[in-house]
Design brief:
It is a single chain. This protein folds into three domains: 8-93, 3-Layer(aba) Sandwich (Rossmann fold); 122-181, Dna Ligase, domain 1 (2-Layer Sandwich), CATH 3.30.1490.20; 187-381, 2-Layer Sandwich (D-amino Acid Aminotransferase, Chain A, domain 1), CATH 3.30.470.20. Helix 3 (80-88) links the parallel strand 4 (70-73) and strand 5 (92-93). Strands 10, 11, 12, 13, 14, 15, 16, 18 and 19 form a nine-stranded antiparallel sheet that branches. A five-stranded parallel sheet has the order 3-2-1-4-5, with helices on one face. The chain has 384 residues and is α+β, with helices and mostly antiparallel strands. It has helices at 16-24, 58-66, 80-88, 97-104, 106-115, 129-136, 163-167, 228-244, 279-282, 287-295, 329-333, 364-377; strands spanning 8-12, 31-36, 49-52, 70-73, 92-93, 123-126, 143-148, 158-162, 177-181, 187-195, 200-202, 206-211, 216-222, 249-257, 263-269, 309-315, 325-327, 338-342, 353-360, 379-381. Helix 1 crosses helix 10, helix 3 runs antiparallel to helix 4 and helix 4 packs across helix 5 (106-115).
């Protein structure tokens, strides 16, 4: 006898995003197959079939496609060539690997924005040392942002440096990069967008605060602290870029808000995103349930915010690798509106995302106060 939702979903990548995607549909009895190179991947315990192989392994991806009705991915660094072949042969892949090809390369991504008249910071593509030096003359200000075209992830592959650094020969990366002006005093906003191919909707805005050392989101809150006109314009831009991509799935559009009120696209994630973790408790439909709805060809869900929310990443400390425990959990668990998510990772490493927590409250101010209070006491520490 078939379950109500009988298609089997294949996920390329078995990390925490895949884990939360699976968790969101557990009440529906949906089945998942997972491919990941880590034999202890977060998703392994939840998979109908777990394929332990590299994210670019052609034959392993083909095997996953053969045993799954629809494919998705929870990480960008996958083999798009084989996915394009599979899509051409009729396999449903959401989002399309043609979109992923653009997003995998920051130069192609920036070119897509400019070609489609979408607002983004001006940039230069640089590959050789002399191109770095020449590029500096075309960018205003003393600071620049350098981004590796390919391979960057979770804050890696991004460097804020000065023109003097570059002139002195301190080039942060080997290989092709884009360089752009560093915008002083800008705020970072994310707009989550869902599209099923015919209807496109957004969630309330999310404002992000970044850890300056790790270049990771330290905490975020929703709704963002922006006026209605900025929120509406940001949503319009986010919808416009996903429509230009002919995107189907869930996307996170990261935006800069300049001190002058200009809204610029930074980059896009073609999947559920760290900036949307709070939607699990804070919104009527989470980003994970929404993606499952799209993968299962169900109607889109309502994205309204139930209560203001703050999400804080639980990050592995600099001085600890290996076994760990959570300190301060008893205190956190006594605070109304606190929700903990751990990512089933067996060992901690410096800068590794080990989990997150969300705090809901009647006001955004109260949620922020509670979340930052918890942040002072909830720590990853050695065992013993």
């Amino acid at each position: 006898m078939k379950q109500p939702f009988h298609p089997t979903i294949g996920i390329i990548g078995g990390g925490q995003l895949g884990k939360m995607l699976i968790e969101s549909a557990m009440p529906w009895n949906v089945q998942y197959n997972v491919l990941d190179p880590d034999p202890s991947a977060s998703c392994k315990a939840y998979a109908k079939t777990f394929i332990n192989a590299g994210l670019k392994d052609r034959e392993a991806i083909k095997e996953l496609a053969k045993i799954s009705d629809v494919l998705t991915y929870e990480i960008e660094h996958v083999n798009t060539e084989v996915l394009l072949e599979l899509e051409k042969a009729g396999k449903i892949i959401i989002p399309s690997p043609s979109i992923l090809q653009i997003i995998q390369d920051k130069n192609l991504q920036k070119k897509f924005y400019t070609d489609n008249h979408l607002p983004t910071a001006s940039y230069m593509l640089v590959e050789k040392k002399e191109e770095w030096i020449n590029g500096l003359n075309q960018i205003e200000g003393e600071k620049i942002v350098a981004k590796l075209c390919k391979g960057g992830y979770d804050g890696k592959g991004v460097s804020i440096c000065t023109k003097k650094d570059i002139e002195a020969g301190n080039i942060p990366f080997e290989g092709p990069c884009i360089i752009e002006k560093f915008i002083e005093g800008c705020r970072e906003l994310a707009i989550l967008v869902a599209s099923n191919g015919t209807e496109t909707i957004t969630w309330p805005s999310i404002e992000m605060d970044f850890d300056p050392k790790l270049n990771l989101v330290d905490f975020l809150f929703s709704p963002g602290n922006v006026d209605r006109a900025i929120e509406e314009k940001a949503s319009e831009i986010a919808i416009a870029v996903i429509r230009a991509l002919n995107g189907k799935g869930v996307f996170a559009v990261e935006l800069f808000i300049t001190p002058q009120g200009e809204i610029l696209i930074n980059e896009i994630a073609p999947r559920p995103h760290n900036s949307g973790h709070h939607t699990i408790e804070a919104c009527i439909t989470s980003q994970y349930e929404q993606l499952n709805r799209i993968l299962l060809n169900l109607p889109l869900g309502n994205t309204d915010l139930i209560k203001p929310a703050v999400m804080v990443n639980i990050i592995g400390p600099e001085n600890l690798t290996g076994d760990y425990k959570l300190e301060g959990l008893d205190m956190a668990m006594q605070i109304p509106g606190f929700y903990l998510h751990l990512y089933k990772k067996n060992e901690t490493r410096p800068g590794r995302k080990m989990g997150h927590y969300t705090v809901l409250a009647d006001t955004l101010e109260d949620a922020i106060i509670k979340a930052l209070e918890i942040k002072e006491t909830l720590k990853i520490v050695p065992i013993g």
